[in-house]
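User: Modeling request: complex.
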Amino acid sequence: MDFLGINPVLLITALMIASTPILLAAIGELVVEKSGVLNLGVEGMMITGAICGFIIAVETGSPTLGFIFAAVGGAALSLIFAVITLYFLSNQVATGLALTLFGLGLSSLMGQGYQGVKPPLTSKIDMGPLTDIPVLGTILFNHDAIVYLSLALVVAVWAFLKYTRAGLILRSCGENAEAAHALGYKVKLIRMAAIAFGGACAGVGGAYISMVRVPQWVDGMTAGAGWIALAIVVFGAWRAGRVLIGAYLFGGVTVLQLNLQAAGIAIPVEYLSMSPYLITILVLVLISAGRARALGAPAALGQSFHASR
Amino acid sequence: MKLRSILAALAVAVSGPAFADGHEPTKVGFVYVGPIGDGGWTYEHHQGLLAVEEEFGDKVETMYVENVPEGADAERVMTQMALQGADLIFTTSFGYMDPTINVAAKFPDVKFEHATGFKRADNVSTYSARFYEGRAVQGHIAGKLTQTNKVGYIASFPIPEVIRGINSAYLHAQKVNPDVEFNIIWVFTWFDPTKEADAAKALIDQGADIILQHTDSTAPLAAAEEAGVLGFGQASDMAAFTETSRIGSIIDNWAPYYIERTRAVMDGTWESVDTWDGMDTGMVEMGAMTDKIPADVQAEAEAMMAAIAAGEYHPFTGPINKQDGSVWLAEGEVADDGALAGLSFYIEGVTGDIPN
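Assistant: Request completed. Predicted assembly structure:
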């Protein structure tokens, strides 16, 4: 069963948990970008969600309320971005970067006094006998609700974009905002809703780190997960299924790296540690080299829309 | 913060050097690598700060900065403290070594104390604790208690202090349990709960049922709690996990040292020294063991602590071979402090390589 001293079943289980925050943030950002908005503030929304959820969970003792308020916190922060970029027509890239810096500072301020505090435990869902199925039971039926939520979101987003009329309208805003406007769709409202959805997803992803994966509050604890999520959207060519693969791949490298070390396999750890970031850079280079269109990027991605014509 | 520091710097410039003349309070600064709330390393240093305040009352004024990265930023923080009139500055992480030396050269009248380093100057002392003495006890307990014969070890940076800990723990685990195996993960951070938790989980997934950590947060104990395995408090008691995963702890008790050094500055008797204290002076304390450790093992651990504290037993007493099988210490030979201070190899039986 063991392979090089690593149990693949446990590895996959650990990988799913480690990847969930990135997956949640990435699937949210996918919807945002599909509507034609590039929000680089994912990291800031994640960390804000992480502290909002943490505070509420600690104060109320309810992880569920914690996750709900993490979504609210992330969405609230993203709405600042939405108002500034959609109504004041500021540059999306600069505003997104500012949002990240703002979120990091805000969360640090909010988190004063919450360092070293233990949050209430998020329990796994009791699947009864399903958990006892060998291999599959551990991998599929032994998680908390958020892991299933992230997977359900991937399916929902995929179906929404591909099969629903609303999804088509959202995509049209991302491909050609003028045309969508001419047809009478409220581009700004649609984009605003997408941004809020992205913020909520990032917030829940962040809270998963502070409430389940660690669980503890520390300044800047998302540690770049938001940037990886951004890269994964590109890596996944703006498709929900591929975003899932990308997220598990990146999450997997982190976990595999630690497992290889623990198993005493002599590999240069530094290379594995930097591999997710290397791939991120590579993908970003491809985008900036003007190959984004070939990769399937929404045509109006990152362009401000103003109904002047 | 910035405005205040500029004002403070101006005040210093206007009023001339603000060194203790017997009337003004002695100013003591602390530079922390993590947040006080880490519940471990930085928390204990801050307890030392509080003890200094309590001991001297109005006669001291303390300041501290948390979360200072090891590098150029540390120099900025130390410089700022010196400009604010600090008479004594404690820099509490290994990576502050060169920044401390650099800043100390610019402020010859300010005294510096660098924790766990080896570079000194006329106004720079170094101090550290013999953590490996506590590791020996932990190793003994871990060797006795492990069912899977696998002990997980979360290591921070490949520096002598950490390597000493691994060797000491392994040596004493293997003495009581020849089959024991150490799985070591290097996380290259002192404080990153996400990484520490992931590392602990990876070790547990591979069968480790005891987790030792040389990082500062309580995240590994939280992971152990969830998985139902055991671990030790590191640097601080981490008593929050007493009911579950924590079965003992190594506590760094810096308070007496900080009080003594602050008094030396007040008296004008401060000199650059190299302090390396252990269980004998109480700088290394062992937290209460829980009853998850059987009584006989507890008694053995107590006996070992007593012997170490009395100077009767040195954790690195030969025969000990290096990892490659060559002789390091002959029968009955005790490692000298110089060799220990620069320790850069695993002992025989530890698997894997030390990363560069």
